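User: Quick sanity check before I run a bigger batch. Here is a single chain. Can you write out its predicted 3D structure?
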Amino acid sequence: MPILRQIAQLGQPILREVAQKIIDPQAPYIQALIDDMLVTAADANGVGIAAPQVFESLSLFIVASQPNPRYPNAPLMEPKAMINPEILRVWDATEKGWEGCLSIPGLRGLVPRYTRLGVRYLNRKGELREEEYTDFLARVFQHEFDHIQGILFIDRIEDTRDLFTEKEYVRSLQSHA
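Assistant: Done. Predicted structure follows.
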C-alpha cells in the first residue's frame, strides 16, 4: 500500500545532488517508490515530483499534470513515471513562465524554459519511450529533470525581481484578470 512521503525542503542536501541511475526499473522497491511518489504528488497538489524530493537520490520523476489549486489551468494527463530520463533535443524557442516547487513552499518564480523538447525515458515497466513535449508539459519535464541534476527552479531565475511570495503571485494574477 502506498505511503505518503515527507517532501524534502530547500536546504536539504539531497536536493543538490545528482541522482543515481536506476539499474532495475522493475525492482519491487522502485515500483513501491513510484506508487509513493504518485500519492505524495497528488496529496500536495503537485503536477510532478522527483525522487530526490522524497529523499531518494534516484533518476526518477513523475509527471502528473492535472488542474489543481496550485495550477488551475494545467492540462489533464495520465500520471507517468519517468526512469533515467534524458533530453534528446530542444528547439530554440524559450519562454518565461511561473513555477513553484513542493520543496520550496510559498515561492513562485518566472523561469525561462524551452517550449518544445524531445525526451527519452524508461516507463515503470522498463520499456523505452521517446516523446515530444510542448508548453506546460515541457516546462514540468524540465523542472523535474532539473531535480535529478541537483538544480532548483530558483537557480534558473534570471532576475530576483521575478521571484514572488505565493501571496503576491496570487494577488498579481487577480490584478491582471
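The chain is about 25% helix and 30% strand.

User: Great, the batch can go ahead then.
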